[in-house]
Design a protein that fits this description.
about 210 residues, four-stranded antiparallel β-sheet, three-stranded antiparallel β-sheet, 10 helices, 7 strands, about 40% helix, elongated
Length: about 210
């Protein structure tokens, strides 16, 4: 569902500025947004224990959005498709889901900000996640093994095996979300949809509203 469609269905005003396609939120609308997140994201708020998840969202400019997550047939942006597929096969076998088909988030706002405008992320309803206390960014980790690629043979089987063996040692887990956020490592988050609030807009909210989202 697109943000505008969601806003209409949720009963928010649709006073979009025609010049820059942005919405000027009223105080009452922000109150409704906060209550909506507090209601719809209980599983996350309980497990996060007052901590925040972040993601850089390209050139996104809206103060508040609802977005869907592509959980099947995801085309990786940076990771080679061959490696993406093998990782999915391994995570499915070991942890029960294709966790490379997920939303990539982190508790490190400075790292998330490198990928675009900074947003706080709130998964809606039930969700799954996977993370490792040893891996800050799995793509960066893979790059240590990606130096031998060539057009004829792809990546060497030796390096692929080394990479796979390292992943086996990296203690990936589906537990302790609060610790994952605190460490600031990459978290692979599987949910159908999520809310996103621009970090600067969040900071402008009244303190009691901010507390509802922690």
């Amino acid at each position: 569902m697109k943000s505008k469609d969601f806003l209409k269905e949720a009963g928010f005003m649709n006073a979009w500025n025609n010049e820059d396609n942005e919405h000027a939120w009223t105080e009452n609308e922000w109150a409704k947004i906060v209550k909506t997140i507090h209601r719809d994201c209980k599983p996350f708020l309980v497990q996060a224990k007052g901590q925040s998840l972040y993601r850089g969202l390209g050139n996104a400019r809206d103060d508040f959005m609802k977005k869907t997550v592509r959980l099947s047939d995801r085309v990786p942006k940076d990771m080679p498709e061959e490696i993406h597929t093998k990782l999915n096969q391994y995570f499915l076998m070991k942890h029960g889901a294709k966790f490379r088909n997920a939303l990539f988030v982190t508790g490190d706002n400075s790292h998330a900000g490198e990928y675009g405008n900074l947003y706080k992320i709130y998964p809606i309803g039930n969700f799954e996640y996977l993370w490792s206390p040893k891996v800050n960014d799995l793509f960066t980790h893979w790059e240590d093994y990606a130096y031998d690629w060539n057009e004829d043979d792809g990546y060497s089987k030796e390096n692929l095996k080394k990479f796979h063996n390292e992943i086996l040692k990296d203690n990936y887990t589906t537990e302790n979300l609060a610790s994952a956020i605190k460490r600031g490592n990459e978290i692979m988050l599987r949910c159908r949809s999520y809310y996103a609030i621009d970090e600067n807009s969040f900071d402008d909210l009244p303190e009691n509203w901010q507390e509802m989202l922690k």
